[in-house]
Each structure stands twice: as C-alpha cells, then as structure tokens.
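Can't paste images in this forum, so I'm doing it all in text. The chain is below; anyone willing to post the predicted structure tokens underneath?
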Amino acid sequence: MSLPKSVDVVIVGGGVMGASTAFHLAEAGVSVLLCERNELASGSTSKAAGGVRANFSDEFNVALGARSLELFSNFNQRPGYEIDLHRPGYLFALTKQSDVELFESSTKIHHQFGLRSQMLTPQEAKRISPLLNTDDVLACSFTPDDGHCTPESVVMGYAIGAKRHGAVVLTNTEVLSIEIIGDQIRSVTTTLGKVETEAVINCAGAWSPNVGAMVGLNLPVTPYRRELVITKELGVDFADLPTSMPMTIDYSSTLYWHREGKGLLMGFSDKSNPAGFETPRDPDFLLKLGEIASVRAPRLLDIGVGRGWVGLYEVTPDHNAILGEYSKVSRYFYATGFSGHGFLQGPAIGEILRDLYLGREPFISVSALSADRFQRPNSLRPEYNIV
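Text version of the structure:
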C-alpha cells in the first residue's frame, strides 16, 4: 500500500494504542494513516503478558479497564477477530496490612463501577489458585471477570478492521518529522515521503518522547526491561490445577502466573533492571524467579521452563498514563506512559482519542492526565495496583 497524498490524521505507532485508535477513527469516517516503523505489535504490545483487568486503585484506570473489558468481550463481532479471551479473574495475594487496606479501598471503588470484586480469605484464595502458598498471606483481592487474551491478535484485529473502514496501515515506515506553521500541523515526513495532514496522534509507546520532541513536547516516559517465561506442558502432577485458574499475583514480590495453553506464563518485575531500550535476556532471571517462587509458589519450581522473552515497560513518574492534546500545537494528541497496563486499556483509549479528535466528550474526563501535570505542584496521580 502506498503513501497517501493527504489524510485527516496520522497515527504514529502500530501497537495496541495506535491500532485501536486507527480502528475507532476510521469507523467514524475519518481518513487515517497509521505508520509503524517496524511490524505491527513489534514493540511492547507483543511482549505483554496479555492480562486484561479493571482491578486498579485509581478511578480512571478502573473505568478504562471496565470499558476495555466490555470491548474485549465483543471483539469477535467488532472489529471481528479471535483474540483467545479467557476470563478466570485476577487474584492479588497480600502479605502486609497496609496492602490489605489499599485493596479494600480499591474494592469499594470497583463496586462504584458495578464490577464484581471481593476480598477473599487465604483459604478461599487457595481453592481457586492451588499453587499459591498462603502461609503468610493476610487476604486476597479477587476480580472474577478479569483475565487475559492474545496481544498480537488484538492488534491484528484492530488493524484489519481499520483497513476495512478505509484506513491506510503502513509498516516499516518511520515518521521522521512534523511540519508546523504557527501552531498548526501541516504535514508529516516519513521514510516513504511526505503526507499532508492537520492532526497527529502519538502512540509510539516507549519511543513516544522522540515523537513528542518533534513538536517541542516533553513526555517523561522511561523504558524499563521486563522479562517473562512460559513453562513446558503441565504433567499429571499438576492435574489438580483448574483450567480457569486466575492470574495470580504476589503483590509484594510481583511474582505472577496464569494458564497459557498447556503450561503457565509467569514472571515478575525486576526493579534492579536499569532504564534503557536494551532488551537482552537476563542470565540470572530464572534464578531470581526461583527464589521468589520458592516462597510464594514452591510448586512452580517443579515445572520445566520452555520459551521466554523480554519487553519494555513505558513508565511515568506516577505510573499513570499521559493522555490528551498538546496545548501549544493544535491537533497534536498523545497517549503513552501506561506503565505496564497499556495493553489492557488499549480499546478504551482508542475510543477516547477518537472522541478528542472529533471534539466530543469522552466517556470519562482525561484532563488530569495531561502532560503538563508534571509541571504543576501536587498534580501527580499515582496508581498503586501495578505489577
């Protein structure tokens, strides 16, 4: 597919944010060009664990998660693609009283949005997640309608749907510069040439600061390496594990696991990783993982490890998204810095960016997540239910 001469909107980034936004805009009749410098979903999206949830502490994230779950559940019909959605729930194991109080408060917020959410005793949690060692667990937070699906399929579904509605989706096409006259966007130059446009949406994830710098916008997004593995097929010794075992997370250590095919997907957030774009496999990752598992889920040590991979978290100072329209350049929008929960919020973000572009009020206000909050005192909006 060739570069169009002009479009209404150029979207930068072909992960879940860019693809979702392209679909929702194209469906609304907007002419769209999506540019991805590599392949679709080749950045952070394809490296995600695939979790989808509304279990957050911030009302905004609860709302985004809840709306995205609705859209994920209807994905087979709109845009029309199989994403292998499973909804066995999310289970956070809590070993500190302060964490119990945090999740008790979160549960009240969940109920305000009509979500099924409850605090479980360690014994109740053990019944639905048998691998969990609950000896020192005080309580657990359980949201039974959360789950996981396949990130690449979500991106492909949105991209195919966007093209069905007339969008142009170009891979191996990098955006090099944005032409601005006064405060108006006039064109975007790519490795395939120039396209006239009056609007740009920055969905470049960990690489979004570079796209922000093209218009003088500072986006405080820092990439951090995260690693996970998928085990070999579970044998007869694990026949007691339910097929609907929830995504289980040890909140203190961030160790997590869920069913993945005939095995398990598991990992943790290694806070010792330095910031940067390098993604080598950590030769000590399995040792570190084993040390945590020996405490929280010892039986994990008896499962052979198959394949694994490394991806990037795009982290902001308050672990919350940067979302909105740039005040100094008309029609320049951004959605980045989701700090590990971007994939699961992608469907709702696509709707929000569509509405911002069309001048409509989104289903939830995003004003508190603008990039300039980092220059205002007491304007950070921390999210605590993170991994």
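The chain has two domains: 9-48+151-221+318-375, 90-144+222-315. The mean pLDDT is 95.
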